[in-house]
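User: Please predict the structure of the protein below. I'd like the answer in structure-token form so I can feed it into my own downstream comparison script.

Assistant: Understood. Taking the following sequence of 340 residues as input:
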Amino acid sequence: MHNSIVAVKPFNHPKFFQNGLFNTANDPKLRIFITLREYLKKHGYDLVTIDMPQAIHAQALIVLDVPYPWDLVSWFYIFRNIHHSILFHWEPPIINPFNYMKAIMPIFRCIYTSNDMLVDGNKFKKFYYPKTDTGFIRKKIPFAKKKLVTMVASNLSVFLPFQLLARSSELYSTRQKIVAFFDRYAPREFDLYGRGWNKPARFSIRDRLIGFRSYVTYRGACKDQFKVLSRYRFGICLENTDAPGYLCEKMFDCFKAGSVPVYLGAINIADIVPKNCFIDMRDFRTNGDLLAFLRLIDETTYDAYLTNIRQFLRKSETKMRWFEYGFAKLVLGAVRAIDV
């Protein structure tokens, strides 16, 4: 007996088509979809991207973000599977506002979203942005040997038309202001890693008109963010947006590395992750207040944060909500509900 076919519309980039979604050479985080593919296969489903020949026989279609309006090929596949398609809101409104347009929602049988304002338990179901099971740093670096703080992030800016369409605020500009502050006032305690900090940010009108700022703390891109983060007491984590419920990999990268996150993002973060596992930037009036707080944290207080993080990660609920096998189980349930 042959397995049933499940098709997936991958992320909005050509490299993810032709089954590129299952190739970690394109992105190490794609391990999530390799695990998903293996899990579905064990339960009688073969997962392929929508442009593979087998996709014409698909019993269900998984859509990872609504295609942009000009991606006519992807729209063709979606309308061909209009009665058995499932949408996952992978990107927040500031990145893909088309995900959240009401006119598009009737196309899908079910929508999985991280946005807590949309979840109704019926059409809209809760979805936790999945993390890989890899990257955990087991070797503990002593408190005294860790540098104070780092940020590992790309220097990006929002595409203005998308910002006008989105209902949530962007945090790219806030990220740049925080980097500028620590670069100026804590150059010996702060290091900056990531792509794009040595050139104008994409879509940034300001950078292109008046020039971009160079940073003395910039250390270039890093091949292994977990090893980098493990050398610092704190990792500054800013989401792309403050959309409620949206929590990508940044905080969990710090958790895996044994670095305490300094977080700004989802407005309801304290309802998602225990408050004693991170430092909330909203608790501080200024960046100066935040820096002073970080400098004052002693080893005992710091180790308490790390203990709380380990306890949170060990919980079965955390593993099922936030990591790859929990995501695979959720997708299987969604596919079975469609394939009836």
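That's the full token string. The chain has two domains: 4-132+323-338, 143-318.
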